[in-house]
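Self-study notes.
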Amino acid sequence: MTTGTGTGTGTGTGTGISGAMCAISQDVLGGPEVLKEVRLDVPEPGPNELLVRVHAAGLNPTDWKHRASGAFLGTPPFVLGWDVSGVVETVGTGVTLFRAGDDVFGMLPHPHGAGAHAEYVTGPARAFAHKPPAIDHVQAAALPLASLTAWQALVDTARIRAGQRVLIHAAAGGVGHLAVQIAKARGAFVIGTASAGKHDFLRDLGADEVIDYQESDFAEAVSDVDVVLDTIGGDYRTRSLRTLRRGGVLVSLQLHAKTELAEEARRLGVRAEVMIVEADHAGMNAIADLVRTGRLRAAIAQTFPLAEAAKAHELGETGRTAGKLVLVVR
């Protein structure tokens, strides 16, 4: 089944679309300069898939990591991008949840289903949800991967409950600022780490306590935490274990040193989990519900036209943005 690879191997037959589409591709691994605008055939949806006319596509750290290393995608050429918001152009055989003309947003299957940085993309119908009318495509494209990551870490994995204390690292970042809002929506007391200049931003999102990691050692300042969301890795993970109450859980988004982390967690009487975000229809619907009820919004750090994807990568790799970067396709 086609999973939104954006490789242009489809002929476009049956889509009602003639000609080719613009996409951002690369022939080699490397820095942002390897990204280039190319013309590819419009892909065709297979069974249970949608063909989506992309209006906006989000960027995430996984994009520059794959651009530089290939990671799970292997050897180029490939088209990056997992976050997408747009309009259903046509549906494949067996699709019952969507119709042509529907506004949708979603995350293509991560990590192997990239391809959103193009004018059209295919993906499994159940990777999408209907876009809430209250937000535009730029806002919608900023949400899927980062908000699903936060949802799957906090709700599915840690099972946070009202009244629990939750520590979120890099709380002003792409995942972090959405995790703050999701934790608050679940009734948690939220503690975030961020540089001083981002504290007001986090308080506006609902953070109850903010720690300047440049001035204070969070491991000394915080204790009796029920859940830690680690988006940084390194020694942040092992130091964060010391902030947990017995029986607490740390969820890390960094895959390295998983065995050592688990061993230290067992010694301290806590739990440590390492996760990769998954495409998730139920999760996307939960995200959409939070947006509809005004409890979740993406902060947009900056937008770029599709042709300037390399500039977006350059900015993203600085690690200094608050919120999300988005490519505007239409």
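Second protein, same conventions, sequence then structure:
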Amino acid sequence: MLHVNARSYKLPTQPTVVVCVDGCEPDYIAQAVAHGQAPWLARTLANGSALVADCVIPSFTNPNNLSIVTGAPPSVHGICGNFLFDTATGTEVMMNDPKWLRAPTLLAALSDAGRSVAVVTAKDKLRQLLGHGMQGICVSAEKADRMNQAENGIAGLLELVARPLPSVYSADLSEFVFAAGVALMRRRRPDVMYLSTTDYIQHKHAPGTSAADDFYRMMDAYLGQLDAMGCVIALTADHGMNAKTRLDASPNVIYLQDLLDDWLGAASARVILPITDPYVVHHGALGSFATVYLPSSADRVALAARLGARRGIECVLTREAAAERFELPADRIGDLVVVSERSTVLGTSASRHDLSGLDVPLRSHGGTSEQQVPLIVNRRIAGLDAQRRWRNFDAFDLALNMAQ
């Protein structure tokens, strides 16, 4: 029995695979199944265990992947976005470095317990965080040509998978993750494997469209292969996805920095968008969650009320209220947290967002409107309470404690 972040886990008796499908709004699965494109998922929904869970807020990639592998919210593991304002240095930085982690991962604990562990992530930005303290295989599809034995636990990844290096802006990046997972399970048969994809398709294509169905048909085939190899599979997502457009299909954006500069004076406030990462072509760094640092003279409560009264804003919370409601580390968020409504995104200044790469109407995430995600296990688990609040970070609990 392992004890990690106040939770207990049994050691696996069967190969166990936990999958985080980036941006998987539950309707993607429903539509693919309805259209006959996901036969393995259809069987699993009928014969396994299927729940709808909540991801953590902000509904972004890094906080949720780290919640899944720690079994805990950001208030415990410390990763509260892809990007943050480091008050110690006065700089805006990516949260890719393991120095930002405040809690151990279950993956590290499993490897310490002598179990073989493999991690395959789509983007390299997650690799170091997921692999922190872990012995085993930890690779990214994005830089599959650079993986080596000393750093990643395996060399010759491209040859093993027998696929070319994928473009970071493609469905191929996620397919490489699944193909690598199948190849590793066939050749190395790790005790535990964690697979994490990218949401490139979900940012561009709504549930039930041909491109979305193609993606889920591809995923379904690989999951079927893992199932046939005897794996316990738990599938969840880091967040959902929604259209963020006006009636004319243009991005529906509230530019908070411009707004606050107008109210308080230029450069008085600092708006941080935790969605920000190196891969902004498909979302323009626009999401539904922002954090705001204010001058000490500002009236936080009055500003929260003024911002909250604007159309398109779902809620504005002070630091303390946001930390409590969303289980966030209070020292890593601003004086205010702003969450926009389902069809609205938040920006800094209009001049700072390059939207030229948006070749389809904007789809994005970050708010509570993208909080519901699937939580599916390919084993029937008796006695599951569908009425309790399940979280995506219950995936390992289900896979290791209930599905073996």
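Instructor comment on the second fold: The domain at 2-241+366-402 is CATH 3.40.720.10 (Alkaline Phosphatase, subunit A).
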